[in-house]
């Protein structure tokens, strides 16, 4: 069964959606640990609920993170509200030489390539655009630049919706897209998407 780790720094609603999907779905993919660069983030409670080991590492000690990867031996990493850029030595751990990608996925709250980096909901809300969206993508060495797997847009109606409303709407989609990505790993379809050139 393929093993995965979740990397998260915050509340962990995406981690929760992933763990829930795996718990109810009788699926052939296992999240072996939730790893965090925070000591006691909200995501820890979610990991505990699903009886998934939680471990933290010092935020700029990537050798410590590498040690955890060697301990849990995952094939995949799911970034779910992990706010740092992973250095190459960590990405290389997940390199898939057949498909020439790192088996690392990230959820980003904008329609990439628009609004990469931090505070993407804010960037979109205070822009002139009447729509934004969510992107699920493979991670590469850049900031939110890896091959795009799934995207879904939503409208922004500033007369009726606050920034908080937009975040709530977007997070629901984040969870849907991560669930979809997990399912496509299970079926092997994720690599067909790359092969078919569906991935931008
Ligand atoms: C999400 O909005 C995600 O898109 C961004 O960080 C947030 C994490 O939320 N990268 P959560 O911790 O999964 O609830």
Topology:
Layout: E1 3-7, H1 13-24, E2 30-36, H2 42-49, E3 54-56, H3 62-72, E4 76-79, H4 88-93, E5 95-96, E6 101-102, E7 104-108, H5 120-125, E8 131-138, E9 148-155, H6 163-187, H7 189-195
Parallel strand pairs: 1-2, 1-4, 2-3, 4-7
Antiparallel strand pairs: 5-6, 7-8, 8-9
Helix pairs in contact: 1-6
What does this structure look like?
The chain has 200 residues and is α/β, with parallel strands linked by helices. Helices cover 38% and strands 22% of the residues. It is built from seven helices and nine strands. It has helices at residues 13-24, 42-49, 62-72, 88-93, 120-125, 163-187, 189-195; strands spanning 3-7, 30-36, 54-56, 76-79, 95-96, 101-102, 104-108, 131-138, 148-155. The strands form two sheets. It has a seven-stranded mixed sheet with strand order 3-2-1-4-7-8-9, with helices on both faces. A two-stranded antiparallel ribbon has the order 5-6. It is globular and about 50 Å long. The model has no long low-confidence stretch (mean pLDDT 94).
Radius of gyration in whole Å, from Cα?
16 Å
Which percent range fits the helix content? 25-40%
Distance between the termini: 28 Å
Identify low-pLDDT runs.
none
Overall pLDDT, averaged?
Answer: 94
Number of strands: 9
- Major sheet attributes: 7 strands, mixed
The strands making up the biggest β-sheet line up spatially as 3-2-1-4-7-8-9
Number of helical segments with 4 or more residues: 7
Give the overall silhouette: globular
List the ions, cofactors and other small molecules found in this model. 5-O-phosphono-beta-D-ribofuranosylamine
């Amino acid at each position: 069964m393929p093993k995965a780790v979740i990397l998260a720094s915050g509340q962990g609603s995406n981690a929760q959606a992933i763990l829930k999907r795996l718990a109810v779905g009788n699926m052939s993919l296992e999240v072996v640990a939730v790893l965090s660069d925070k000591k006691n983030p909200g995501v820890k409670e979610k990991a505990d609920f699903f009886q998934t080991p939680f471990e933290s590492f010092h935020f700029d000690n990537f050798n410590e993170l590498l040690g955890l990867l060697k301990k849990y031996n995952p094939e995949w990493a799911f970034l779910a509200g992990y706010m740092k850029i992973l250095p190459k030595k960590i990405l290389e751990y997940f390199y898939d030489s057949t498909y020439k990608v790192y088996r690392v996925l990230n959820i980003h709250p904008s329609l990439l390539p628009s609004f990469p980096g931090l505070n993407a909901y804010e960037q979109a809300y205070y822009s002139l655009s009447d729509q934004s969206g969510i992107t699920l993508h493979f991670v590469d060495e850049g900031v939110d630049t890896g091959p795009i797997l799934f995207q879904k847009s939503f409208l922004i109606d500033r007369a009726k919706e606050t920034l908080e409303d937009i975040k709530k709407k977007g997070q629901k989609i984040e969870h849907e897209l991560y669930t979809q990505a997990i399912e496509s790993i299970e079926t092997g379809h994720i690599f067909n998407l790359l092969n078919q050139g569906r991935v931008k």
